[in-house]
Design a protein that fits this description.
Radius of gyration: 13 Å
Helix content: under 10%
Strand content: over 45%
Low-confidence stretches: none
Number of strands: 9
Distance between the termini: 11 Å
Largest sheet: 5 strands, mixed
Mean pLDDT: 96
Oligomer: single chain
Structural class: mainly beta
Order of helices and strands: EEEEEEHEEE
């Protein structure tokens, strides 16, 4: 399973209503699209089976900052990662602010 969440570190709050797309990284084939909930989370993209390989999450953060009337340097954040064990849970958090972002492998 793949999940994610977004924290706006500038406000110290979750980033709700952000569109997140999941792609095969090598082919750039769109697998699924989801929107973060009020807690800034996508707990499940609704995909039942995954294969080993490279994937990419694309976070459309420009509309989020625009809704706050805040300019941002990064309109979209793309994170590529590799799935080695299809039985593991892959949680990819994103920390954002108007002029920076960070990520890590969560649990």
């Amino acid at each position: 399973m793949i999940s994610t969440h977004i924290l706006d570190t500038n406000l110290g709050k979750p980033a709700a209503h952000v569109e997140v797309k999941l792609f095969h990284a090598e082919t750039h084939e769109l697998i699924a699209t989801a929107t973060t909930n009020p807690d800034g989370r996508v707990s499940d993209f609704g995909i039942k089976e995954f294969a080993e390989g490279a994937y990419q999450l694309e976070f459309e953060i420009a509309p989020y900052f625009s809704s706050l009337k805040v300019k941002t340097f990064f309109p979209r954040v793309c994170i590529q990662f590799f799935i080695e064990d299809i039985n593991q849970h892959y949680h990819i958090p994103l920390l954002i602010s108007p002029f920076a972002y960070s990520t890590y492998r969560g649990s």
